[in-house]
Backbone:
């Protein structure tokens, strides 16, 4: 059995446990689990299994008077806010039978409740079952609580993401200060490489242990004996936790297969994450189109082009958006997997080929044309399916991916993409001839307020991405008067640009600390920009030695690439990578 088939079976088996309980039930699901289901067949699978309704996991939702059964699917501990939401939903409903699935293992619930994780039985789950019966109002009603590892979402057979851990971000130097401050009576850590799991905040400890537990469940299903390698401090902690997982020892003794697992701190090379040098259509789609609500890895595709409705606000509310995930459509899935690995030009031609094939199957009057693929040409092919419900139904997935392509090709963001790419190349040349202050002076004229900007100019969010790129390229920077003066000018311009925004984007709201009634004072904005500049400056320090760490990712036996398979070896060969830790998604 190949790894890709094994992973598909692993996620399928996990969701099958949920599906076995949803018959005649109202299903309440949080965003992280919903995103996993989205790539594993979507809500269609729940309805096919007999679910009556699917609702968000929210205190403002409830079941109907004639709906006695509920299924909750959550990615969190069954305590605190999660327990409160379950209680609120039950209190507003008439349930007599409740089933709760959590992606967090019982052993981690024990740890979160200050009990020994090695304790046998399922005490925490049993206590929560009793609480549910109390909330339903009758101890004779039925409640079930169980753990299911629903943490993976298969974007493709060879690419899986972990939505449940999307908020896990690598440690940075500011975190080291907070960690040392939180343990005043203990020896201070000199660097992030010295930080261990139990010095981290409890919430982060739980997330790391949950990730290790989920990975252990996956390897157990695949009958794999893993050998872990880590590049970067946060990756070292995660890999070490997996290597020392209590249930892993027996698995490794009987496992039939071997695998090397590499954990890499993504922030070791932020230029790769924020740069625009990728020539991939999917990357551009994800950048150009708005995010699908509640998701981090899919977008909203405007489907109005397939209707006769006028393009206005009311119409957008009437028509559900399309998206990229098409797990139930083999033809669309094949197209998706193809364009994931193709360059932009090849991918656009592949989209055209699939559209032509779909139109031919439906005997639609398609006019073939060779040469360069344009959005107008693709749009004309898509319009052939308009008002033909059967054809749309048969090829709905392909049409969604095709519309996503057309809307991306027409998006102003695509023009900005090319502009970014050109400027990034100039910055690379500038760093060869100049230092950081001179490069910052080149960026300064680009920072404009809303009143001064044209459609071709960059927004504050665009400029933040560009600054991350610059500081990631800068390498080790020594503080000097020239740097301070250049940074001060950039800060002033950014503060003015942010303060002049009539309405802040969700990203800027999160950065600048949203206050009462959505109004953010200039003082808040100024403080936020100063804090951002501190973070940007640390990138130059954190990414020093970046070339070496890139070599580590490919050469696993490099002296800096730490093998965490053996805990005793882990202590003696600890990696000394003084960088920002990164995501393991």
Residues:
């Amino acid at each position: 059995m190949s790894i890709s088939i094994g992973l598909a079976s692993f996620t399928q088996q996990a969701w099958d446990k949920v599906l076995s309980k949803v018959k005649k039930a109202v299903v309440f699901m949080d965003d992280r689990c919903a995103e996993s289901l989205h790539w594993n067949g979507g809500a269609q699978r729940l309805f096919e299994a007999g679910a009556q309704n699917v609702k968000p996991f929210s205190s403002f939702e409830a079941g109907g008077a004639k709906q006695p059964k509920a299924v909750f699917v959550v990615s969190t501990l069954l305590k605190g806010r999660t327990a409160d939401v379950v209680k609120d939903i039950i209190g507003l409903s008439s349930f007599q039978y409740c089933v709760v699935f959590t992606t967090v293992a019982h052993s981690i619930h024990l740890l979160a409740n200050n009990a020994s994780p090695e304790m046998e039985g399922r005490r925490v789950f049993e206590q929560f079952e009793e609480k549910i019966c109390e909330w339903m109002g009758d101890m004779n009603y039925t409640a079930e609580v169980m753990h299911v590892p629903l943490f993976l979402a298969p974007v493709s057979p060879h690419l899986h993401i972990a939505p449940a851990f999307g908020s896990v971000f690598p440690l940075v130097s500011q975190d080291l200060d907070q960690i040392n401050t939180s343990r005043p009576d203990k020896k201070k850590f000199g660097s992030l490489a010295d930080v261990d799991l139990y010095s981290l905040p409890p919430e982060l400890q739980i997330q790391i242990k949950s990730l290790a537990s989920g990975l252990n469940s996956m390897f157990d299903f695949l009958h794999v004996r893993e050998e872990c390698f880590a590049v970067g401090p946060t990756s070292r902690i995660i890999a070490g936790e997996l290597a020392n997982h209590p249930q892993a020892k027996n698995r490794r003794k009987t496992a039939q297969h071997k695998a090397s697992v590499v954990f890499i701190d993504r922030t070791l090379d932020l230029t790769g994450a924020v740069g625009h040098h990728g020539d991939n259509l999917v990357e551009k789609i994800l950048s150009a189109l708005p995010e699908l609500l509640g998701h981090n890895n899919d977008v909203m595709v405007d489907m109005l082009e397939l209707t006769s409705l006028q393009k206005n606000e009311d119409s957008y509310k009437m028509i559900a958006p399309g998206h990229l995930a098409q797990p139930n459509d083999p033809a669309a899935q094949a197209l998706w997997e193809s364009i994931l690995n193709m360059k932009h030009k090849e991918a656009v031609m592949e989209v055209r080929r699939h559209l032509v094939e779909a139109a031919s199957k439906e005997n639609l009057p398609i006019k073939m044309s060779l040469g360069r693929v344009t959005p107008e040409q693709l749009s004309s092919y898509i319009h052939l399916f308009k008002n033909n419900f059967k054809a749309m139904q048969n090829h709905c997935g392909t049409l969604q991916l095709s519309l996503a392509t057309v809307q991306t090709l027409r998006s102003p963001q695509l023009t900005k993409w090319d502009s970014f790419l050109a400027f990034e190349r100039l910055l690379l040349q500038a760093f060869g001839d100049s230092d950081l202050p001179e490069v910052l002076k080149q960026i300064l004229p680009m920072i404009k307020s809303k009143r001064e900007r044209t459609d071709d100019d960059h927004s504050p969010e665009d400029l933040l991405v560009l600054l991350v790129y610059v500081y990631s390229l800068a390498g080790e920077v020594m503080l000097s008067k020239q740097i301070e003066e250049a940074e001060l000018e950039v800060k002033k311009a950014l503060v003015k640009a942010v303060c002049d925004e009539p309405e802040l984007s969700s990203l800027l709201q999160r950065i600048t600390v949203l206050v009462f009634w959505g109004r953010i004072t200039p003082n808040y904005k100024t403080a936020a920009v100063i804090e951002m500049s501190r973070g940007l400056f640390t990138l130059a320090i954190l990414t020093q030695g970046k070339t070496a760490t890139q070599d580590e990712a490919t050469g696993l036996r490099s002296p800096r690439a730490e093998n965490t398979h053996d805990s005793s070896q882990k202590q003696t060969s600890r990696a000394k990578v003084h960088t920002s830790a990164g995501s393991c998604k």
Q: What stands out?
A: The two ends are 24 Å apart (CA to CA). Confidence is low (pLDDT under 50) at residues 514-520, 545-562, 564-585.
